[in-house]
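Components:
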Amino acid sequence: MWEYTDKVKEHFLHPKNIGEIENPDAVGEVGSIVCGDALKLYLKVDEKSGKITDAKFQTFGCASAIASSSALTELVKGKTLDEALKVTNQEIAEFLGGLPKEKMHCSVMGREALEAAIANYRGQPPEVKEEGRLICKCFDVTEEKIRKVAIENHLTTVDEITDYTKAGGGCGECKAEIEAILRDIWALKKPERPVVSKKLTNLQKIALMQEIIETEIRPGLQADGGDIELIDIDGNRVIVALRGMCSGCLMADVTIKGIQDKLREMAGEEITVEAQ
Amino acid sequence: MKTIYFDNNATTNIAPEVIDEMLPYLRELYGNPSSMHTFGGQLHRKIEEARSRVAGLLGAGPEEIIFTSCGTESDNTALMSAVESVPHKKHIITSRVEHPAVLNFCKYLARKGYRATYLPVSKQGQLNVDELVKALDEDTAVVSLMYANNESGVIFPVAELGEMLKERGILFHTDAVQAVGKIPIDLKKLPVDMLSLSGHKLHAPKGVGALYVRKGARFHPYIIGGHQEHGRRAGTENVASVIALGKACELAGDNLSQEVIYLKGLRDKLENALLKSCPDARINGDVNSRLPNTTNISFEYVEGEAILLRLNEFGICASSGSACTSGSLEPSHVLRAMGVPATLIHGSIRFSLSRYNTEAEVDKVIEIMPPVIKELRQLSPFGRERIKK
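Structure:
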């Protein structure tokens, strides 16, 4: 049983703005009956002011899908198209006093229908599926959508992506790919450590390298029965020794290269790594 | 608001007679049946009485009944015992529509190196005996097929399947959690080696079940410890619940043939009325071989969770196979295995009745359901042309 807020129940049992608009100025259609939820949004737009004078919807889906659609129409009425485009899925959820996290995809569907309707009004072609690489085949979710929703909602885990987009919620085969996309997004977006400034003393530099090796590199090597030790730092030259299974491993060069990439990413491009 | 409970395949109320029977063993008579003193030791006799009552409902011998903690434990025990009894055989057969207690245990065994075959079912959810014959080989350790399906109510031809497996000397387990207490079962005639049942599906409390193991069949315990249940299931007996299960089985047996007729009457009335009053609705399941208390109906163009929550406003309890109600994003594996199109699975509703339901309740649901479906269809972007007609 889902814990729905009273606001969700109210908008589910007595939804606002249901039905079609005759001769609408814009229509946005998202989802499909196969996937379990679908939303068709109709807008009436005043040409002069660019304001949305009326909004109606038809929704196939669960209680939170219907409530999100109802909330969406209430939120966008009276707004200009540009203002409406700023309505996020979070705002839809907040309007309803929050949604269970597993149901956040309902608010995302609302936001998507709005984008589709406005694109339709502005004469932009409907989003073509091929634009993004298809990641989740069960629910038809592209890499582009995953990236967009992840960034807009600050999502960092695969489970969160499933809650917000359904991707990964079917057969689960795409979970590794979603994980990779998330790593890619947040490695680029979140500089977790300060980039080495030229002014670092040698001691500071050693401490930083030591920390990166401890937290980012060693666990991976140890998982494979290997290990690493920081031997010395000479300017931007980092000298390490591979231990355990890594020492004498045929892949040692590749490992060193991997360590160098990691250190460069986290501490500056000029770093080179050498094995002792 | 009065609750109309039409979700008896999920769980049932505890029969008042059952509560009366078990209460003294929760209050005053809290002893341990293994004790030497009379206070505890006398309970042993009550446990054996319960065992006879369970056996009586099934046409089994008391020594063939092992008490467990639930249907899932019975299923897991049966499968584990089977594969341990024939360690050289590494193939198990089940169906695609089993309860997770069997299905996920087979998947677990598959990860441990067993080969698992999941038999398909027809569009009506029925199992084809020929498919089973084709799947058998000399490596097959056990076949586990349910007696009746919890979602569709479809009854498998267990007698026929059992005969065929008996001839070939292959262990046969049936998960009869949904069947026991709902339809007559006579293990004197039915060739199965193991059968699982669960208390709370037949008006006993949750937390108690039983496993029937045919006399002479090889058995390996799953829960290891003390000598209880003749060393076949360790752990101090859940005395009050075991006694309750015995009473519930006795009650079920006393009224079974009348109940089948009563429930079938109510179910058919409900089903026929809804199919008549709601266009674009259809039955999921094999109407020729189905539990008398169960109906599974798909309503096109609307989604199950929405239907359930609208019904909830009227105190009506039912279930759905839709994705939104499954706890995952995937709709019912049973209806998918039956080849029901996704559009119809999302709008599927299961009503399951019990002897405590009344005709007045059925009439109430017949009255409330059509407007609920109609209103939700008016919200839906699908089936517009059909609805306008």
